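Hi Y.,

Following your request, here is the sequence exactly as I used it, all 262 residues.
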Amino acid sequence: MIALWGPKGGQGVSVTVASLALSHVRRSQDSVAIVDLAGDQPALLGATGIQSVGVLDWLASDAAGGALERTALNVAERLTVVPLGGGDVSGRDTGSGGLTPGGHGAAGRIDALWRAVDGLADVVLVDVGVPSARDGMVEPAATAGADDLRRAAVLAAANNVVVIRACYLALRRFRGLNLRCDSAVLVREPQRALSRGDVADTLDAPVSATVELDPAVARSVDSGMLVSRLPRRLDRTMAALADLLLVDGVHAAAASERKSAG
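Below is the corresponding structure, written out as tokens. Let me know if you'd prefer a different format.
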């Protein structure tokens, strides 16, 4: 599983995840699943009229791993999205037993989630959103929240990619999260003082793709046409990123080595 995340809101994580998935399914025979921990993917991909359970509901139940796949919404050929859903990851009573089914705590259930996620498709992209700033989960059955789940996704991923603008505040927030990334997608805005090299140095990770700020992307998203009209420049950038992340496996290997060393 590949986790994509941002150090703060407004970095472009959800659009990057959706665009990467769309670009890859058009150029390969892989099935792709997006696991939405930020909550925006159904609207972004045109599934807003569907009321569905999702990740949080699965976590709050004692359902087997295969049940998670049944929450997936079909978006396009070989592309599905598992919604965030409406359950409660805090462990409080939700009418379905909370997060302690069968006597298991939240941490164990979250570990089971990642095992289930890995079996969803050939390629699994997790839209993490913004992870928690705290390092680890304290008393998970009582205090773990969706932010903790997002942080856990970054830590559990075989490969994690930060989506970030060349913004001092975003880079400062990244440092404060005490998380490492395997690579980055830089959303480049005009007239920023910080360069691609500055971003890579601060992150201590390579910038694998640069997405130019493009009004065509905003128009495509706002009109609900991202699935059918992915802007060409963004499509090309995401295709190259997919080659790096999914075909060459360079960063996945680096991630594996880093985690083994840790």
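The CA atoms of residues 167 and 252 lie 26 Å apart.

Thanks again,
Q.
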